Structure formats: C-alpha cells, structure tokens
C-alpha cells in the first residue's frame, strides 16, 4: 500500500514520501512520460531524412551509449537522494549542496516552461479529434489550421484570444491539476495505467489500418530503405543522439522525480531497460504508421514521398494528416484514432513534466501535494492561456520549444554529467547504488559513457545549434522576436534557477543519510540498514 499523510509519525515530522504501488506502476508511468508527441511526429521524419533504414544503426548506438546510461544516472540520483531534482542535487552535493541545488531548479524551470506550451498542443489535438468526425478542415487543411482555427497573426504579443484554443486548453489544465492533486499512486500512476493501454491499442489499430492502404508499401520502402552513405555523415549520428536524448524524458528532472517515489529496495536498471526499449519500440511503430499513411497520400497525389511537405512536427500532425484523412476510406475514424492517440500520448508526458515542478515546490515550501499541485497548476494555466491561446500563440510556441529543447535541456544534461561525475565525484557511488539494488549490473564503462561520451556529443550538439541560431536565425522571424521568446526563455531558466535556489527552505533537506551506505565497508550493522530501508 502507498503511504499517506495520515500515517502515524511524531508531531511536526515530515510525512512519509509517497510511493508507487509497485514496479509495474512505475514502469507504466515512466513509459507514459517517455512516449509523447515527439515519438509520433518527430522520429519518423528524422529517420527518413537521415538515412532511412540505415538510421537505425546510429539510433541503436545512441540508445545504448547515451540514452540508457543517462536514464540510469537520473534513476540513481532520484532514488538514492529521495527527492525532486532540487532536493536530490542539494543532497548529492554535500557541502556544495547549495549551488548544486541550482542545477535542480534549472531542470525544474525547464519542465515549467515546457508544460506551458505542451498543454496547448494537447488542446489542439483534442480540437482536431472533434473536427475529425465531420472533416471540418475542408479542402485546405493548412489554411484551416493557421487561419480559421489558430487565427495566426504577425510576430509579437497579442491579447486577442482564440476561443477554439482557449476552451480545450482550460479543460486540459483542469484535468492535469486534478491528476497531480490526487498524488502519485491515485493520480499519476492511475492515469498512466488507464491511458497508456488505450493509447497503445488505438495506435495499433491505426497502424494496422494504414498498412492496408494503397501505397503503404511505397511509404514503408521510403522509410526503411537504407542509405548506407549516410552513416559517414556526422550530422546523421548527431540526429540519432538528439532523437534518443529528447524522447526518453531525461536530464530535466522527470526521471529523477519519478525514481524518488520508488521503494528503497527497488530494482532500477532492469525497469530502465524496459522503459527505454518500450519507448524505442513505440517510435518504430509510429514510423510504420506514419509512413504507411504518407505512402497512401503520395499514391493519391501521384508523387513520391520526397515531394511531400510537412513530414515532421506540427505540420505533419495538423496539416498533412488532416489532408490524408480527407482522402482515405473511413477517414473520420482514422482521424479520430490519430488525434486521440496524439492527445493521450501528450497528456501522459504532460503529467510527468508538471510533477517535476509540483514536487520541487512541495518540498521547498513544505506544503501538501494538493496545495503544490493547485499553486503550480493555476499559475501555469494562467501563463499558458495568456501566451499560447492568442493569435500569436503558434509563433511563440515554436520559438520557445526550439530554444528550450535544443539549448536548455542540452545545457542541463551537460552540466549534470560534468558536475555529478567530475566535480562532485559521485560516479562510483551512483554506480554502486545501481548495482546494490538491481539485477542488471553496470560496469565502470557506465561512468565513462555518462562522464565523457555524453558531454562530448551533447557539447557538439549544443555548439552547432547555437551557431546555427545566431547565424541563420529561425523560421524567418525578426531577430528581436527571437531575442525575446528564444534567448529570453533561456535567460528565464537561469534566473529562475538562481532565485529559487536562494529562497530559504521551510524544512531543511540536509538532515538525510543515503542508503545503502557508501563505501559499503562503512555500514555499521545489517540491522541498522534494514531498519533504514523501511523508512
């Protein structure tokens, strides 16, 4: 049973930490976090543009050398130091905990910003789920999406709200707050246990239907036919590492927070492998479904896949797919399945993003989970509505997403690897923690992958992206707009991390002893260890 605030304890003592009901609940919730919008609208296009079937080789290498190792790092930090990102990093840092705490707040502010706009995409998906039944986008889905639906205006900041976005956006925020307030077991876990199977079943039905469309084979050939020459291109390998990195929900507090709710004696690495390979399997499934459908679209238009526009991101989901749905037999049902899957995948990821912020605030201010969920949810909802439900919402979302994901999260991962492995020198301790509790043991190579290969690859990605954004700009948008919504978002992350780490704790997190003891020779008695593991 999960412990609750009503458990007996000394007056004034903190409530026992919430826990997942078991390993299955944790695994489903972690998979729900990892499987999100990017699996459906990003992976298929990235694979197609970077060597097709040959891309699976660097993709698998990236999964094994960066994705899984950093996922294990997040698990070890959260589980050993028993807290959301700010709490865990403060405890990890020891005497330097005060400045290590700021890294945790940097991750929490990233999650906060992502939550603001991620919710809007889910609202769009819910709208298009309804639109699917009468094909409301008509003959020109592009004009409908940007014009009739979003009413996109010029770059800037507008208070002209779009009702079609505002109403489902508020509904999504209400649902998210309710789930967070219910807690880990009764809220987050229960939502994933219900939603994830529905998502998988709906998407499998969608994929099976897509495979029987005219032209589906040509679409799959376009996706999986290998271009072996692409393996000699460094950018293809960087694209693989980038995809793995962004799709596993690592390095911005999610898996640290989720792992902190596991029981003391919990297998960490084996569930991590299940989560990682389940996420990758869903990406490949999404690739099959998307390109089988694109093959039908190309067949109907008498063109090749290469001649189609909008193969990734927002364009794929809200322009290309509606156009396909309008042309295919049983289109309304197919559209409902696609947009329903998009909304469900987005919602399970959204919950995990918001839990990072809610848990961090709850621990810093020593308040109840309901108060934290309500406070974080209401503030986030207001900002989300003000910025992203207006006529300038699409442009702001696109820019903030680019800078937060491609700069903010990458900076967080680099700092985490360097500070934890090289500055705090915790690589050996975290490796010991993983091996002491898990059936799948990690060797010393794990520390090398996390502390050397990870920062090198991510550092290259970061520098290349910053140079591109400075030299080429983004999307043809005015430099001032990019400075405010792009670089301004990054500045907000750093300022927020510093300010929040300076604020005093209501209850000090420093009275804490990690378990099991490290080095293991320092363990006083097995009886003491057994007593502590139950706490």
Automatic annotation (TrEMBL):
Membrane topology listed for this record: Multi-pass membrane protein
Region entry Disordered, spans: 514-535
Subcellular locations according to the entry: Membrane
Record field: transmembrane: 20-41, 53-73, 105-131, 161-182, 194-216, 236-261, 273-299, 333-361, 373-397, 403-424, 445-468, 480-503
Keywords linked to the UniProt accession: Membrane, Transmembrane, Transmembrane helix, Transport
InterPro entries hit by this protein: Na/ntran_symport, SNS_sf
Pfam families: SNF (PF00209)
Membrane found in the keyword field: yes
Taxonomic superkingdom: Bacteria
Keyword check for ATP-binding: no
PROSITE patterns: NA_NEUROTRAN_SYMP_3
Principal subcellular localisation of the protein: membrane
Protein name: Sodium-dependent transporter
Annotated organism of origin: Microbacterium insulae
Organism lineage: Bacteria, Bacillati, Actinomycetota, Actinomycetes, Micrococcales
